[in-house]
C-alpha cells in the first residue's frame, strides 16, 4: 500500500500519480497469460515512458527539468489529499 508523505524532512511524496490499479499485464511466471496487477510496478512504466518521450522531444532537458515538467503538467485530484498525490495525475 502506498505510504503517503510528507517525508521526515517535510517533502510531499509521491511526486505524482500514474495509472497503477488493475493494469492488464503479462504473467511473468508463464509468459503465456495475462492478469490484472496493481502497484508501483504497474505505474512506474507509465512515468518512465512519459519521461522518455519528453526527453526524446527535448534532448537538452536535464532529468530535473523532465521531473519538473511532468509535475507541472500533472492534474491535481480534488478528492485526494496532497500528501497522497503530490502534483497530481500524470498528464502528457
List the helices and strands and how they pair.
Blueprint: E1 23-26, E2 34-37, H1 40-57, H2 63-73, H3 82-85
Antiparallel strand pairs: 1-2
Domain Peptidase S8/S53: 5-88
Organism: Aminipila terrae
Keywords: Hydrolase, Protease, Serine protease
Can you describe what's shown?
This protein has 92 residues and is mainly alpha-helical. The chain contains three helices and two strands; from the N terminus they run ββααα. The longest helix is centred in the middle third of the chain and has 18 residues, at 40-57. It has a domain at 23-85. Helix 1 (40-57) packs across helix 2. Strands 1-2 form a two-stranded antiparallel sheet. GO terms for molecular function: serine-type endopeptidase activity. Pfam families: Peptidase_S8. Belongs to the peptidase S8 family. InterPro entries: Peptidase_S8/S53_dom (IPR000209), Peptidase_S8/S53_dom_sf (IPR036852), Peptidase_S8_Ser-AS (IPR023828), Peptidase_S8_subtilisin-like (IPR050131).
